[in-house]
Every structure is written in structure tokens, then in C-alpha cells.
Amino acid sequence: MNLQKKVTIKEVGPRDGLQNEKQMIQTEDKIEWINMLSETGLTYIEITSFVNPRWIPQLADAVQVAKSIKRKNDITYAALVPNERGLEGALEANVDEVAVFMSASETHNLKNINKSISDTYPVLKPVIQEGIVAGKSVRGYVSTVFGCPYEGEVSIDSVLAVSEQLFSYGIEELSLGDTIGVANPKQVEEVLTEVLKRFPRERIAMHFHNTRGTALANVLVALNLGITNFDSALGGLGGCPYAPGASGNLATDDLHYMLAGMGIETGINKEKLIQAARFLEEKMGKELPSHTMQTERSKISN
Amino acid sequence: MNLQKKVTIKEVGPRDGLQNEKQMIQTEDKIEWINMLSETGLTYIEITSFVNPRWIPQLADAVQVAKSIKRKNDITYAALVPNERGLEGALEANVDEVAVFMSASETHNLKNINKSISDTYPVLKPVIQEGIVAGKSVRGYVSTVFGCPYEGEVSIDSVLAVSEQLFSYGIEELSLGDTIGVANPKQVEEVLTEVLKRFPRERIAMHFHNTRGTALANVLVALNLGITNFDSALGGLGGCPYAPGASGNLATDDLHYMLAGMGIETGINKEKLIQAARFLEEKMGKELPSHTMQTERSKISN
Description:
The structure is a homodimer.
Chain A: E1 8-11, H1 13-17, H2 27-37, E2 44-49, H3 62-68, E3 76-80, H4 84-92, E4 97-103, H5 106-113, H6 117-133, E5 137-143, H7 156-168, E6 173-177, H8 185-198, E7 204-207, H9 215-224, E8 229-232, H10 252-261, H11 270-284, H12 291-301
Parallel strand pairs in A: 1-8, 2-3, 3-4, 4-5, 5-6, 6-7, 7-8
Keywords (chains A, B): Lyase, Metal-binding
Pfam families (chains A, B): HMGL-like (PF00682)
InterPro entries (chains A, B): Aldolase_TIM, HMGL, PYR_CT
């Protein structure tokens, strides 16, 4: 294996995790939770999404969350924005980075954004460019890179086309998402090999879901290809919107377990990570599904 | 990746899975379940263990199970035997293969077998040799290869020493077990690299547990090193005896999902695998923890 020495884990729990949780979390609890995450050694936290609250009521408190958390200088606090109106909110709340999103699959893009892929570009272009003018770095998410809940297979060409457009508008980093958790290591190798012919590895992040248990195997392949940015959500928060009850985001704690065991630096303190996960479990009144949290609970019950 | 084209999945659910389940399963249900497993395309099933029923009441019906299942010619039906008495039972029931076991960690071996490692050899040697004389192939399990619940780290030298002894007695195949599910891919690479300097890859099997979610990543490394035999238990049956509530054996269905997606042949039919898992869930009155079964359930509830 040709391993990287250092990896940046980008915590997406407060956004991608919570947006898939039906149970409403109190704003003050979110703020306290994010403050705890800031103490774990994480250097990147996606704290919320400035979307229309009609679509995601859970994140209706985006402004308040973004304005109330205690920020640390060495952490990038990011937020998702779907359009110019979202960007305004994010700029008003002064987040460090904004992230736009679209899908590599026509049908998923249509169902998720209510627009075709080609009609999405003119929406995202000004968001990206105004974000940059405002002094923010901009991240681009591409979803359904490894499979679509409606179309099944997604071609590498579609992934490359969307990636190319987003980079051409000025995004700093591209996050490739296995939205429904279907990817296998061979596919990750195939897709990434093509992606890395066109874009530098430092500007690519991988965003795996663990719906079929393959997320860490997929991470391993990406690591071997030089990728050093990985998205994950503490405790595996979030589930999969297309498979209720199934595992969702790759868990930050599971990812950290594997990387730490392999001697790969993340700067994260495991105990503080577990504490933050326990806090959220308490506030939600439910157990988080990650393997690490299952194992931690069993230690207590022993 | 340097992938194998064909892999043999060795189903250990009826033994390693069930022995860690507290809830007693009816003998007739076990028999029907194993008969269903025989229809999935699996070519190897470890059906029970001929241990003292005082230690594992769940498998007290070993003789009846072994004698009552419908056998298919192209399937190897194996059973675990701890000693000569166990071997007698297994031979009487005419299983195709017997498996002996010991630990690479002194303390785990002592707690599990009530003997030191050096005192275990004289017990296993005649079992292996009499098994061979009786016309059976013999498998050797080494447990705690990647970590011990009592000692923590286990040295590669201990693993090699135990492996060397077992091969010298005539075992056909060695199964290296991550008993408590702590292994990471780098460690698997390190251990296997040493193991494969001494023993041919065709005679090594890997037995991963998914306690920390790393099992499929570990499989991937072993595949890349030429290993083609993997143990797993349908639905992730079994839990981890040292971490109650946590995931246990790598799930056959999750392993099959990854391998099939990568175009690696296993001969297994996914639908029949799921059917067999559903049958067991019904008989146990509980859900199996594998990612695949979680996803399958969510399809129904959708």
C-alpha cells in the first residue's frame, strides 16, 4: 500500500447527518455539540445548510447556529448553500467556506434540485463566483457519483462533466459523493483514476456512505490513490434517505479508528470524539449506529 | 489493485455465529437453515461444533444436526472439534472436514481452552493426525491474530509459531482470525506478508470480524495479496463475545455484495442468501445486523 501520512477528516454531521434525522434537535444543543466538535481536533466542520426551511425544517436555525457557535481560528466552518439566497445567509453569518451541490445523475438532480443538470449550472455559477468575490473558498459536492437511486449506474463521463464545470467556475475542492452507499472498491479505483487524470488529488475529497458496509474499503482505495480529504459524520449520524433504517454517512469515529490504527495522522482525539457522540446520543435520546459507538456502549454495559 | 478472479466464501454462521447467540435455536430450524444455505451456491459450510455442551449449550445438538442435514456433493460440511472426544463425534457424524482451534495469544488461549499454548499442541496433534487417518481434511483456526482482549497486541512471531506447528501436524488450511475485530488494513498487510513468506496463499484463509467496521477493508488487502478463502457468517450473526451488542462476524451477505460488485466470482446467489437470512431472522425473532439485511429491510418498509 502506498499510504498518505496525513488525512483531513471533514465533519459533515451537523449538516448531512442532521438533515436526514427526523427528530428535531434544539438549536442550543446543536451549538453545544458543534462547540464540542471544535475541541476534538477536527479542522473542518460543515455546520449547517442555508436552504429553504420548508425543505429541511431541521436546519431552519442555520443563521442562529452559525452566529452562536464558538469559533476556533484553526477550524474551517462551512455551510451548504443551494442558491444565491442561501449564499446571502451564509455570508451574513460569516461562515469560512460555502458548499454548492448537484448530482451526476439527471434524474436525481431533477428530484433533488427540481432542475435538469444543464439548468443547474447557471444557478451555481454566480453562487460560486460571488462566494469567491466575498473572500470565501467554495466547495462543490457531486452526488450519486457511484450510483443513482432512480437510474442505477452513473457514467464516469457524467461525473467528469459536472466536475469540470464546477472547477471551471472556481471551486476550491470537489467532494465526490456515494449518496446511496453502493460503491465498491474496484469502482472507486476506476472512477478516481479518471478523475485524477484531470484534477489534482489535493482538490478532491471523497464522501462515502456506509449503507452496504463498504465505506472503509472504499476509503482505503482512495487513500492509496493519494486522496487525503474525507467527509464523514460522527457516529454515522443521518441514515440514508433512500434506505430508511440503513446506515448512512461513513462514521467519523470508524474512519478515525482505521486511520489511527494505520498510523495516519488526523489530529483528532478519540476520547473527545466519543464524548461529543455521547452528548448527541443523550440529546437525541437514541443510539448512534457507528461500529465504534456500538463497541463503546458494550464496554459500559460489560 | 491486483484482484483475484474467484473467491471461496466459507460460511461459519451455523457454528461461529450461533455459538455467540444466547437465544436457543430449535434443532429442526438449524437443519432447515443449513439446508437453505446449501442451496445458495456456497461450497463450504461449518455446520456445528463438537464441544462439551456444558460450554456451548447452543450446539449440544451437533450430532443430530450433522446427521440430519441434506448434503450436497459439491459442498464441504465442516465441524469444529476441540479434542479427541470431539473428533470421535465428528467422525461418527461423518462430516467432510474437521477444524481445530487455538490462540496466538497466551492469555486468550488459557481463558478459552484452559491450557497454555505449549500444552495445547499435544492435544491438537493427535486430533489432526487421526482426522487425516480417517480420511478427513483438517483445518486449523488461529484466533486473536490481530489483537487479544487480555493482552492487547499480539506479535507476528506468535502467529507464525502457532501456524508453523499446526501446518507441521498436517492441517490443510489455516484460518487467521481477528477474533475481537480490531485489525486494520496496514496490520493485515504486515501480518499476511510475513505469513505468505512461509506458507502458500492457497492454504491461508482470513476470518475477520466487523466489530469496528474494518472487515471489508481488511478483506480488500488480503485479496490484493492473493488470498481467496474468506470466512463469514450470514447476516453478521453472532456478535462479539468481548463486546456485547457490537457487530460480530463479517457478514456473508456484505462480503458477497462487495465481491460481486467487483466482478469477483463466488458462485453465490444473492436472493437465496437473503432468503436464508430472513428465515433465520424469523426463527430467532430478531433482526440480523449486517448492512445488507438493514438495507433489505428498508426496501420492504418503503
